Design the sequence.
């Protein structure tokens, strides 16, 4: 049985359709990512899973239980860490954990055992007497996660837990999530950091309230249709103009019958700090590249095949979506 | 050893890359700030060239914010020297403030003011005259294509427009240097890429851009990136240089190795002299 089943869920706020006909399944013990920019519908969807918000249409089952029918039962089975988690700033780490244990009615003997485990995995034991207000961002986030886990939920729902946290703490946090998943807990986590998709077993890419793609990160990246190259040169700005001109020149060349740079069909150019990423519709061969090097006046220094990231995939999907919509 | 690793100063290879301009926008020598017995910034020396897009990375508590506050003329150093846009941070902090802009995507616009009012508000803060404010407001609204929306509340704008508006207001008084704090977090990748194209245009025109971020995808758009740890700059170079030097495929992995002193998963061994993971994590936690 799937841990999470979302069937054609929709939710609107006035004129805004926050979530439109979303369906997805999360397997038991899976680490599942909802990836998308602000406003994509991630929070609305998660709040609906947590019984905090009623969808206008569709149905959600958490471990087989309909969220619309058994709110109390569902809440005991899930742990939820909202985007703005609320720790009691003037309580210590330990007191915060006690508070959440009481809230969920965790019996005393069990509570002590759970706390022991949570301290061990979060390495927060040395800080248990410290007030929450005196913790660093990364530590607050670990405490909030621990509070969401104190009643041993079957499914953990985390809304942008790594937002604004530095990359070192973020990577530690993902390590924690993997160890929680190893215990059999199902995890649904949202993020706007596209690169965090790689940390998940499976992801759904959300945009404009819809799922535009779902699958393992590897499957999604395999869908990127164009050969992508990382190109460096003496002046990357000039190189960008060179390839942009080539792309524009391509259409003209077709009519005129000659073949300038871009006859491999430049699909997209992105300027980074010290390189360009250029996608081509046809993989340019060595002869073509040599021609470009000469044409650019030796400004083109290196070529390297670049693996597309989730961001490249996302962008391509949005572009296609726009084309088909309009 | 640290000195050797820090490649590409403004006088050297760095300046050549930004159109051969050797002018220095930011220069620090042994810049230090102590808070009681705690040294937040510890003898930092760096040069940022005019027109450079400079990434400023570091874990929480590494000293980034203290460094930026000193460079903005908001905090006096305890020791060392620094000039920003040619002005001395000890004696000319008011001139510095007039020559820098600041943008934080999440916090710098008033949601309940209209777009036009936000621009006027910032024009006033930067000390522009009313005629100048009006002409720059109209120009900015035109560039952004927001003529029809100028009377709308800022909160009703899509995130990508807010961000362009925030950048526009940070540049309203034509500063020489602009500080960006996580400028594109949360926007969709298409909007982010368009934003960085604009930043690269500004850099081409000679604006120096200082980017402070936890968002490693943003670091890739910078000409050079510095990584701070325990108050010191311990790695500096172009994204490509740093990746090559540390044998990594992403800045994220370089950052984790450098900022925590432990190798990222699947990577090579930590450098000699790097402290263990538990040690570094403990220190970071104690600091904030």
Sequence:
């Amino acid at each position: 049985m799937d841990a999470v089943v979302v069937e054609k869920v929709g939710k609107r706020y006035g004129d805004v359709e926050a979530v439109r006909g979303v369906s997805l399944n999360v397997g038991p013990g899976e680490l599942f990512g909802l990836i998308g920019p602000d406003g994509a519908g991630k929070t609305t969807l998660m709040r609906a899973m947590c019984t905090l918000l009623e969808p206008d249409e569709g149905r959600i089952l958490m471990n087989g239980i309909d969220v619309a029918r058994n709110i109390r039962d569902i809440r005991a089975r899930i742990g939820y860490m909202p985007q703005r988690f609320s720790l009691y700033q003037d309580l210590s780490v330990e007191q915060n954990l006690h508070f959440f244990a009481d809230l969920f009615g965790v019996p005393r003997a069990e509570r002590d055992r759970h706390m022991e485990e949570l301290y061990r995995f979060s390495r927060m034991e040395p800080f248990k007497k410290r007030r929450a207000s005196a913790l660093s961002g990364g530590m607050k986030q670990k405490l909030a996660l621990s509070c969401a886990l104190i009643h041993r939920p079957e499914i953990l729902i985390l809304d942008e837990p790594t937002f604004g946290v530095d990359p070192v703490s973020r990577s530690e946090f993902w390590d924690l999530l993997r160890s929680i998943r190893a215990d059999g807990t199902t995890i649904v986590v949202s993020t706007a950091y596209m690169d965090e998709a790689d940390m998940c077993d499976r992801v759904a890419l959300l945009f404009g309230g819809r799922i535009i793609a779902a699958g393992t990160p590897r499957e999604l990246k395999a869908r990127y249709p164009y050969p992508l190259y990382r190109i460096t040169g003496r002046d990357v700005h000039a190189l960008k103009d060179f390839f942009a001109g080539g792309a524009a020149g391509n259409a003209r060349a077709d009519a005129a019958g000659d073949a300038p740079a871009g006859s491999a069909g430049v699909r997209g150019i992105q300027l980074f700090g010290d390189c360009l990423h250029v996608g081509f519709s046809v993989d340019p061969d060595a002869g073509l590249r040599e021609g470009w090097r000469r044409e650019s006046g030796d400004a083109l220094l290196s070529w390297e095949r670049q693996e597309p990231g989730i961001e490249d995939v996302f962008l391509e999907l949005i572009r296609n979506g726009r084309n088909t919509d309009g | 050893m640290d000195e050797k690793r820090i490649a590409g100063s403004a006088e050297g290879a760095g300046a050549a890359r930004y159109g051969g301009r050797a002018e220095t926008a930011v220069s620090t020598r042994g810049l230090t700030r102590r808070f009681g017995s705690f040294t937040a910034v510890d003898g930092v020396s760096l040069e940022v060239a005019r027109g450079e897009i400079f990434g400023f990375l570091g874990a929480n508590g590494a000293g980034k914010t203290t460094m930026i506050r000193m460079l903005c003329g908001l905090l006096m150093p305890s020791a060392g020297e620094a000039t920003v846009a040619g002005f001395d941070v000890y004696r000319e902090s008011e001139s510095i403030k007039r020559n820098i802009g600041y943008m934080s995507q999440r916090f710098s616009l008033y949601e309940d003011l209209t777009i036009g009012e936000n621009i006027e508000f910032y024009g006033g803060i930067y000390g522009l005259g009313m005629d100048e404010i009006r002409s720059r407001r109209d120009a900015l609204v035109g560039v952004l294509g927001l003529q029809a929306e100028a009377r709308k509340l800022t909160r009703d704008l899509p995130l990508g427009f807010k961000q362009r508006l925030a950048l526009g207001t940070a540049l309203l008084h034509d500063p020489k240097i602009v500080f960006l704090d996580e400028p594109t977090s949360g926007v969709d990748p298409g909007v982010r890429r368009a934003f960085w194209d604009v930043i690269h245009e500004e850099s081409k025109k000679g604006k120096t851009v200082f980017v402070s971020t936890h968002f490693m995808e943003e670091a890739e758009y910078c000409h050079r990136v510095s990584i701070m740890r325990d108050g010191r700059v311990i790695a500096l170079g172009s994204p490509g240089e740093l990746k090559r030097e540390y044998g990594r495929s992403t800045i994220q992995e370089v950052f984790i190795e450098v900022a925590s002193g432990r190798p990222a998963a699947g990577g090579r061994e930590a450098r000699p002299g790097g402290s263990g993971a538990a040690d570094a994590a403990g220190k970071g936690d104690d600091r904030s």
